[in-house]
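Blinded run. Sample ID left blank on purpose so nobody reads anything into the name before looking at the predicted structure. Input follows.
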Amino acid sequence: MLESLQEAGGVEANVATGYHAIEFLLWGQDLHGTKAGAGERPATDYDLKNCTGGNCDRRAAYLTAVTDLLVKDLKDAAAIWAQDGKAREAVMANDGADGVRALLTGMGSLSFGELAGDRIKLGLMLHDPEEEHDCFSDNTHASHYNDAVGIKNVYTGIYKRIDGTVVSGASLANLMSTQNAKLNTAMMSRLDDTLAALSVIVKQANSGEAYDQMIGAGNTEGNALLQKVVDVLGAQTKAVERIIAALNIKDAKITKSDSLK
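Blinded prediction complete.
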């Protein structure tokens, strides 16, 4: 039922499943605008004996169901990327060329159209806290930082598990170190620049100024910190495009954003 209601009627605002549905159920709406404070849902919204807000039993049932569904979706994603999974087979097709194209267009599209444009620049232009990624919990700084970590993981073929163990294998970085060492060095520098800029955002948030405060109108310092992230993400995307050209990859289309025109 929840899956059928997701984006019902083709409306993206109809969110019934996924991370942000869970985030809302746990934190509630952030009514502080660009001032300090996140959502403040009380625990009693789930207390069957001392219920606040009404429908505590249904809210709890929804939270349980939507969380179970997220776990299922993650397991499904892991399965299709397993050794015999359909996603693995797709990227390994055509002697791996399709996979290289997918990796690079994915890196570029997440860097530019998604993260720099729709996730950061749009909110910065509008000074609108509703445009931040995690608008209920004020955890946007962590989400953006880990997006950048994920992009670097894809390029380097190195992933650090939550328990500290490291998974590594063949990578785009390995390929470029042999094909064009100069471009590889430039790409690694751009990835590090992005993580450095986002580390400043994380530090600022951990010091008490949340992301939605940073995008506020009149917050010159906060706005400048976020614009710096947009700029380095743009430079990172240009490095990806240079690699695509150097490898002569055809039909590689990086998603853009109207916010960056």
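Unblinding after everyone has recorded impressions. The mean pLDDT is 95.
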